[in-house]
Amino acid sequence: xxxxxxxxxxxxxxxxxxxxxxKNENGVLSALRDEIGKVIIGQTYMVDRLLIAxxxxxxxxLEGVPGLAKTLAIKSxxxxxxxxxxxxxxxxxxxxxxxxxxxxxxxxxxxxxxxxGPIFANFVLADEIxxxxxxxxxxxxxxxxxxxxxxxxxxxxxxxxxxxxxTQNPIEQEGTYPLPEAQVDRFMLKVVMSYPNMDDEKRIIxxxxxxxxxxxxxxxxxxxxxxxxxxxxREVYVDEKIEQYIVDIVFATRFPAQFNLASLAPLIAFxxxxxxxxxxxxxxxxxxxxxxxxxVVPEDIRAIAADVMCHRIGLTYEAEAENITSxxxxxxxxxxxxxx
Length: 340
What we know:
By secondary structure, this protein is α/β, with parallel strands linked by helices. It contains 13 helices and eleven strands. The protein has helices at 11-37, 44-56, 70-80, 96-100, 134-146, 181-184, 198-209, 223-235, 240-254, 274-290, 298-309, 317-321, 326-336; strands at 59-63, 85-89, 101-106, 111-116, 123-127, 148-151, 154-157, 163-168, 187-192, 268-270, 314-315. The strands form four sheets. Strands 2-5-8-1-9 form a five-stranded parallel sheet. Strands 3-4 form a two-stranded antiparallel ribbon. Strands 6-7 form a two-stranded antiparallel sheet.
């Protein structure tokens, strides 16, 4: 039970008090947006999704062609937050020990000593994550889900907050490995980035050819601020009807015929996992928080559904032959499932 529920106030008063707290805290997030905006021009959608992941304690997979500032956006976010940052450049010859760490034998003491890897940081940039084989991907599974790493016979808790921010290129397939389903499912959001519009591209040119050099990003948050904000996000109210709406949307990917979507059944190899339901609720809370609201509405679910669900839906060969994407399926489901 939250502190607000312990105050003895009515539900309406609780929401009003929480709304005031959220409005006060959103000034910090506006400052964070401003700092990232010094170097990231346009791409508002992507920046918002990074903030949602930060607030909802989820990992993010950014997918886009080269040059869309995926890596720069993640580095800028880490610079605006006073936290540990590490970058892992994924390559085909990378080993699990290069990510998690290993045991090193000390000849003088005749003992093994733990050498921690770059995974021990608050923000971990997994650059071009699909360039590493499954053996390396499996090294991330425990870290992303349990927030801990086992080296030898010892288990180490990762620092809090802990966020994996990964990038991948969808068009270059040579020397890449498809991410295992278990790995993809651990990402709260998969954000597919698009090209900037003409006006933004002009601003990008001007900022990069200017004589002043790269703008300085100031620190506006520290780890304790993030944990405090996450506590407020968890208090955002989700009505039982909204919960049912989430469950209906997710179940429609598993049993489409029950929702008058029988035509989708031959297109879906497997539906969303329970993680989709959990992450849809958490991401919707964070989205409502960014809108200065203390409660979730159906529009919040619809706004974030594609980012949470698309990478969790398996497509059949029939869907691929008909050029039907998981995004198309999510849109059909949202159009068919009754809104509360």
